[in-house]
Structure formats: structure tokens, C-alpha cells
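User: Could you write out the 3D structure of this protein bound to 6-O-phosphono-beta-D-fructofuranose? I've included everything you need below.
Assistant: Certainly. Input first, then the structure.
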Amino acid sequence: MSQPVDPTKTAAWARLEELSTGLQPDLRAWFAEDSSRAEKLTFTAGDLYVDLSKNLINDDVLDALVELGKEVGIAERRDAMFSGEHINVTEDRAVLHIALRLPKDASLVVDGADAVPLVHEVLEKVYAFANKVRSGEWTGVTGKRIETVVNIGIGGSDLGPVMVYEALQPYVQKGLTARFISNIDPTDVAEKTKDLNPETTLFIVASKTFTTLETLTNARLARSWLLDGLRSSGAIADGDDAASDAVAKHFVAVSTALDKVAAFGIDPENAFGFWDWVGGRYSVDSAIGTSVAVTIGPENFTDFLSGFHAIDTHVKDTPFERNVPVLMGLLNVWYVNFFDAHTHAVLPYAQFLHRFPAYLQQLTMESNGKSVRYDGSPVTTDTGEVFWGEPGTNGQHAFYQLIHQGTRMIPADFIAVANPAHPLRDGESDVHELFLANFFAQTAALAFGKTPEEVRAEGTAEAIVPARVFTGNRPTTSIMAPVLTPSVVGQLIALYEHITFVQGVVWGIDSFDQWGVELGKQLALQVTPAVGGDQEALSKQDGSTQSLITYYHQKREADQAS
Ligand code: F6P
């Protein structure tokens, strides 16, 4: 295993420091001076058309960024990942989400076994199950066909499936819907089941480890809801046998821990496996996507996987100078490390992508929110920006003010598709065109701004000219695709997976572990008895926690008494 290269000690870093100090960003002038700027800085990857020209880069910066990528060994780390080396060193695991989307005739040996036949074996099992549910062959315990699939999972076992299900609504089979329960707040399970019919509801318990407190608690609550509902309507008899029959028809599971699935009471025949070389946040294209495969169907799911594979091929085979995920990852480094950008906005101009920013939060921040490198030494520069966003144009009327005129740089990715799912007209107007006009206008406004002279020329009173000036030179990337197909959604996910990887390599971190989420989980277990009224456990907590729990006890009792 190679050692991380300290990026700050490379010649490219020194060059980038020099360039950033001397750089006077002027996108107006840069576009005026070079009529081919847009063309030169627009790249394609699969069906994605990616315009980087409104970023704060010139030829020298781009060359130095590419050089940095070479000096820190992005190609070597990428090849190590693609060949199944254990690049997730703190968990001693291979990182092979790319194997999940390899075609059937490919081969990728990991830890002595070819992963590809294993992947396709599970996929076929998922597809066979999906077809049975979709055709009505798989029924609930009373013989009624399934109408609602409820995925119970959290983190990577929730965010990917819910995001993709929302993104691919036009592909969802009529008469089938999916819901997603994730939060251990009892409100979540109660609200998501309150109008469902147990006879037509199927639960998919999705958990890589099958130990996650939230998921197992929600799965037990769902099981009780199912059995109570079926018993109270007389659909099933009392007793253990009837309960097991009902669970067998209304519960399936997805996990790497099939023994734990069986212990929960779900027949391993109704369980779909995956492997420890698939990270939770990289798993929507594994059996974790079963709720998606059921609702959009195997053919569309296959198309979804082919989209990932197209970008994997692009990242593997394209020179860095045209390699979109590599360039976008390096650009993020440019802004974080040389312009002190703390956050990065992702702004989909596609309502169906409304959960994409939330999905990216886990992908990017659980991956790159680290302070040590993969050899245990401290990082040598800032890492892990905050990713956030909302669909346009909602964001425009909420937080774009800060992006346009705030004091911090906020690099932003704008995403749009040429063809809408619903081509509606408002009188003479094509509403998708009104929508896209905003997409095009916002990046232009951010790039080119509005000078004081332009503001004055509009007749603005001198006193308010400063408030109406836009500095411009606020960097954006525009990503377009013809239409939001399953393949395009797969391509977008893979694009950001590889961007995240590239940033992690530059910073020398293990982008595939997530130790930072463990301490809170441990403390929650320690605090639970105190919350439940154990005075000794309460006395062991710190002063703030004691007083918060005491407040909780007082108010909870007061509420219950009233
Ligand atoms: O707490 C973080 C995490 O481990 C994520 O990385 C993961 O996606 C999530 O919990 C859910 O884990 P599991 O699929 O094992 O239930």
C-alpha cells in the first residue's frame, strides 16, 4: 500500500499558490478575450454535458491542477481501487462499488474470488423478486397484490433509494408506490404507515450490518404494526405460525449479514446479500436498491447500472485533461484550499432531483470529513467542504442572495435536463423553458455580475447603488443531460462518487471509512438508561446532559399528567 503524498509539498501546489495569489478573476474579460473559452472548457462524460468555463480557472491553473492530480497519484489510487486493493485501510477492505455495475461478461477478482458472477447472481434474485411483486405473483398473506413497498433503512440504506425513487417517478409502475422509513423518531414509522393497508404492504429491511439501532427498531415496530393490523381485521389468526407466515409474505431484507437477517425472523430465501467491499453510501446500485428495482422494474434498473458503468469507464480511460470527475474534484480542491471555500452548493433544476443534495451530503461529507490521512498522520491542509442545496427555482427565492452577494465564495453546481417529464404550457409559454431560463440566467449573473456603472445606467439612486452591485466571478459548473433517464441518474451518482474519490486522494484520506459517526452512537447507548430513569446512570453524565435529561423528565411527566 502506497503512502499518501502530501499535496502541499508538491511542485504543483507551490505553483497553484503562486497562481492563486496572482490571480485576478475576471470572467467578463476572460470570455471577451477568448471566444472559444466555453467550447474549450466544456466536456462530455457519458450523456453529461459539463461546462466548466464559468470557473475561476485559466490554462495555467488547469495545467497546475492536472499536474497536482498526477503528483498525488490519482491514477495509481484509482487503479488500486478498480483492481480490488484494500484501499479502505482502516477497515482493511477493498472498495469495489464499481464492480456492482460491471457487465455480466466482465471479471474482477477480489480477495481471490471473481466479484462479477456474485453481483449478477444477486441481481437476478432481486430482479426475479421484483418481477413477482410487479406482476402480482407475489401477494400478501391474504392473497392481495402488493401496492406499497416500504424501505426501512438509514444513511446509505435510505438516502440513495429514496433519492433515486423520487428522481425516476415517471418510470414507477402504476399502482405501486414506495415509502421510506429511516428516523428512529417514532413519528416516522407512525406517519408513514398510518394510511397503509397491512394486507398490501411489503417491507424491505435494508441494512448493511443489520445491527443499526434505528433500522432494527423501526423493523420491529413495522412487524408489530403488520401483525396487529392483520389480527385486528381478522385477516390472520393469533399464534406464532400465522405470524411467521405473515412475516414471510410481508418482509424481505437486504444485508451483508444474512445470519442476522435470519435471527430477526426473515427467511434467508427472502434476503438479498451484498459484500463488505460496498460502502453504505456507495450501495444504491447493490441490492440496497431493491425498492427501486421493484418500483421501476429490472429493465430500468439495468439501464440505471449502465449509467454508472459509463462514468466508471470514462474516469478510468480518459486523460485527466478531459476527465470530468477528475477535473471537478480538482476544482473543488482549488476552491477549498486556495480560496478558503467552506461550502459547495448543488442546485438541481429538475424537481425530480429534489433529494439529490441530501444524498450527496452523506456521499461527500461522510467520505471526506476527516482530519487524519490513511496512514494515521494529520492532514496537511483543509478537507471536506459542506455540501448543500435545494432544487431551483426554490433556492433562488431563499438563499441565492448569499451566493450572489455574500462575503464567502460558494462554488455551485447547476444541474438541468433538456427535456421535461411534463412538457406543460402556460398559454403561449413552454414552462420548462421558463424554468431553464432561470438555470441559464443564474450562472451568468454569478459569473458576470453587474457593475456600478450598469446599476447607475438603470437610473438607480446613488445611495443604493452599492447594494445593487453584483461582483460576479462567483464560480459555477453547469451540468446538462438530454433527459432524466435511469442511466442519467446513474451517471450523475457515479460522477459525484468519483469527484469525492479524487478529493480524498489529494487530501490523502481514506474516503471509505466513517469512524466519526461512532462516538455519538456509543454515547447514545450509555445515555439510554439515564433517559429511562436510572438515577445512577444519570449521575454519571456531565452537568449539561444531566440538566437536559432532567428537563425532559419534568416536561414528559407534566405532559403525560395533563
Ligand atoms: O452511521 C453511519 C452508517 O454506518 C452509514 O455509513 C451507513 O450508511 C448507515 O450507518 C446505515 O448502516 P447500515 O446499512 O449498516 O444499517
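The mean pLDDT is 96.
User: Perfect, thank you.
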